[in-house]
Amino acid sequence: MVTAAAVGVAFEAVIALAYALALAGRAVLDGAASVGLAWSLVICMLVFALGLGYVAKGLTRTALWARSPALVAQALLLVVGVPMVRGGQLAVGLPLSVLAASVVVLLFTPSARLVLDRALDR
Prior knowledge:
mainly alpha
């Protein structure tokens, strides 16, 4: 189950990277109203994508430290996704919420807890 959670987090990292690149392209091509704000959002998304990628790598190595940042990232994604669903933006909000909730469930399965808790004994 840890591997499945790692795949989910890695997928989120790829989506965050793609979104950062799309924002950068839009800032350059469309001429953003606030260039500083646009590029700061691009940088934040790049940092988030890199962080998710690092956490996914940690999960694949069954590193105990990776569980907490993975859960925090899922909480942040749920904070964004659930209001999107409630606001009618189902195309983005629903997959985001389902993926984040799935990763949380996968990280709390007995087999994932057993594997990650064994990492504590190492």
